[in-house]
Design brief:
Blueprint: E1 4-9, H1 28-51, H2 56-88, E2 90-102, E3 111-118, E4 123-129, H3 133-137, E5 143-149, E6 152-154, E7 161-166
Parallel strand pairs: 1-7
Antiparallel strand pairs: 2-3, 2-5, 3-4, 5-6
Helix pairs in contact: 1-2
Length: 167
């Protein structure tokens, strides 16, 4: 699998139409399960309280609903930050320093990670992707192009793409 190039200009604001991929790529499962648990727990709360007149199970389902709400909020914030960073972010270069795996409780296989280091700001960023191709596309010591805006980093490798800076 070869990652496709996304051409980005140095000047900001960038036109969001130039971004050919989806900003929610890699986050759709989290959003789905967030809504699934939110709607399911509200349904079960209603049944526990009105059908069986039981309040204790309702508290458990309220806790699940709150967790689901925060899951949805996290996904929404991540997508918003990706968009803002693409539009207004400054171009940075970061070097791949490690490869790894991350447990994903929403699927049976692990996610694959790379850690990149932004030497200018002295920050390490962990990028997560669904399969091993990120390791092949981003070997250790390779320099990646990314965007930085308001302490939010965005690397297209998280989406199976790669940024290519153009003057």
């Amino acid at each position: 699998m070869s990652f496709q190039n996304i051409i980005i200009d140095q000047k900001t604001p960038r036109d969001i139409i130039l971004f050919t991929s989806s900003f929610s790529k890699g986050l759709k499962m989290y959003r789905f399960f967030g809504y699934f648990f939110l709607i399911g727990s509200i349904f079960l709360i209603t049944i526990a309280i009105f059908k069986f007149k039981m309040f204790f199970p309702g508290f458990i389902f309220i806790a699940i609903a709150v967790g689901a709400f925060f899951m949805i909020k996290k996904v929404t914030t991540k997508i918003k930050n990706r968009k803002e960073t693409f539009i207004n972010g400054s171009i940075i270069n970061a070097k791949v320093i490690t490869h790894g795996k991350a447990f994903n409780f929403l699927k049976s296989t692990p996610d694959y990670t790379i850690t990149v280091f932004d030497a200018e700001n002295k920050v390490s960023i962990r990028l997560v992707f669904k399969n091993k191709s990120i390791w092949e596309e981003c070997p250790i010591d390779k320099t990646l192009t990314g965007l930085l805006h308001n302490n939010n980093y965005f690397f297209a490798e998280e989406l199976g793409e790669k940024f290519k800076a153009e003057n």
